Amino acid sequence: MKQVLLFVLLAITLRAEVLLQSNFKSGLQNWNTPDYWNGELLHAEEQMQMISKERNGKNFARALNSCKQLEWGGHWLKVTVKARGRGDLRPGLIKYFPDSVGKIDYKAIQYEFTDPAFVLTDTLQSFEYLFKLGEEVPIRIAPIVQVDGPGEAMIASYRLETTNAPNATMENLNTHQILPEGTSIGELRFRFSKAGQPSLIFHNRQVHKATTNADGLLTISSLAAQTGLNQITASAEGASATCYIDAIPRQEWDNFAEVASAFKVSGKIHCLFLGDSLTDFDRGHNSIDKLNFWMQKYHPGRFSIRNAAVRGDYITRVEQRLKGEKAFMQERYDNLFAEKYDLIVFWLGHNDTRADSQSGYQKALIPPEEQDASFRRVIQLIRQSSQAPILLISPSPSNAAMLQERADKQAAGKRVILYGKAEHVQAFDQTLQKLAADLQLGYLNITSPFKQQPELPLLFREDGVHLSENGHRFVALQLLRAFNENPLLKKISGSKND
After folding, report:
1. CATH superfamily to which 251-495 belongs
2. What is the side-by-side strand order in the sheet with 177-180?
3. What is the pLDDT of residue 15?
């Protein structure tokens, strides 16, 4: 059971994703017509109104929305537009391609429109069109809508989403790997739902062609690992799946290896991880995946994780979800305690401690007294189903200095949410330590090691809150070290029997 659950975590087929949805009830929702394009764009009758205008002998109207970033090709993109009016309607895409240094090459921009055009009438109609991107890998796309010739369109809604052929699925059969720089990537395997299917494999925007075998298997070998995170995506008929290979400097790899091999795991440990976006985002290569790689490398078959982290979580929402009160992403806790755990880990705090400018940043979202009470109720709920040891990890400090500086620059009266305010982070941590002492739980201080990093900003994304790839590596190393140093983890790993 443990091995199956771990596999399900890592072998995820990417599903349909809505990239843009506009209903125009409250305005144009970022749709606009640049001055150098023809046409007039209005918001009327809770719809987007496009009116063709003549300029330089050409008569049309065109509008676009914000660019969407793409990381690989092979996408099938379905556009659905509900519209009425007169003239020919052509939804389309602007495709932006990179230059030699990865920036947009404006000379290489491509426009693609529906062909043939949709004919508008006075009756509201729903139009659909499928764009197949194939081998090309634009770094961005921008959705556009055009009315050809004299005419006018009243657009009630617009939707852009990824899609795939019926019953087409792609499965990643690889776990996250971490390699020293200069190492070739070994054989990678994916499984598609059809045999003999021509497929595309994208490696950091490079394209390789392959065909599935009689069992639907797709393999590729000897890719050169580029320094940093390598994203390898297999795609066919719009379905895709991605695996991640992290290539790090040899000295850093050796450091990880030394820490991971320094302790023994005498039995099997199945771990439940409850967290927020710091361990929910970047699945497939986040800190939990990196911890799992090193544990499997030096303690194969002895460690498995169910990562039930949910982005945006704070302790009272964890409590709500455990009670079955239909919290955000309630399904993440489905059958949560159908498995037997040997360790339960909590890493929360950066949402609990966020503060609002409307309170002068003086009040955390979850004040200490509410945090304490909710944690105690959560522990009681867990104890109804599991007696596994519980470890509380102190909160991330975020890139507090940058976030405070950014907040100070906001216009007076504008509502700002501030993460990482030191007094709230410290209060949350003190509450965790008190809970650990009162309830005989484990405690791991990760806040101090974060703050001791001379290049702390590099551990976070540009938003100053979520972890960068460096941040995920850092957290994974702290967790590995804890198996050597933390009393609870040392006891769990060293005292179990096969």
Report:
1. SGNH hydrolase (3.40.50.1110)
2. 177-180, 239-248, 228-236, 198-203, 206-211
3. 55
187 burial (CB, 10 Å; 0-12 / 13-18 / 19+) is: exposed
Q: Which amino acid is at 109?
A: I
Which CATH code fits 170-246?
Answer: 2.60.40.10
As annotated, the residues of the chain forming the CATH 3.40.50.1110 domain(s) are 251-495
Tokens of 250: 């040899």
Task: Tell me the pLDDT tens digit for each residue of 185-199.
Answer: 999 999 999 999 999
Task: Assess contact for 73 and 137: CB atoms under 8 A.
Answer: yes
Distance (Å) of CA 492 to CA 128, 266, 437, 476 = 56, 9, 18, 18
DSSP 255-296: HHHHHHHSS---S-EEEEEEE-HHHHTTTTTSHHHHHHHHHH
Which regions in the chain score pLDDT beneath 70?
A: 1-15, 495-498
Q: What is the pTM of this model?
A: 0.88
CATH 2.60.120.260 positions along the chain are 18-163
CA 80, distance to chain mean position in Å, is: 25
What is the pLDDT at residue 11? Answer: 39
- Write the DSSP string, 171-217: EE----EEEETTPEE--EEEEESSTT-EEEEEETTEEEEEE--TTSE
- The pLDDT tens digits of the residues spanning 294-351 come to 999 999 999 999 999 999 999 999 999 999 998 999 999 999 999 999 999 999 999 9
Q: What are the start and end residues of each CATH 2.60.40.10 domain in the chain?
A: 170-246
CA distance 317 to 391: 19
Measured distance between the N- and C-terminal CA atoms of the chain, rounded to whole angstroms: 16
**Sequence-distant contacts of 21-25: CB under 8 A, at least 24 apart:** 21/157, 21/158, 21/159, 21/160, 22/48, 22/65, 22/157, 22/158, 22/159, 23/156, 23/157, 24/48, 24/155, 24/156, 24/157
Q: Do 328 and 258 contact (CB within 8 A), yes or no? A: no
Q: What is the pLDDT of residue 315?
A: 98
CATH fourth-level superfamily of 18-163: Galactose-binding domain-like (2.60.120.260)
Spatial distance between the Cα atoms of 419 and 342, rounded to a whole number of angstroms: 33
> Looking at 46-75, which runs of residues are DSSP E strands?
47-51, 53-55, 58-64, 68-69
Torsion on CA atoms 479, 484, 490, 492, rounded to nearest 10:
50
Position 9 scores a pLDDT of 33
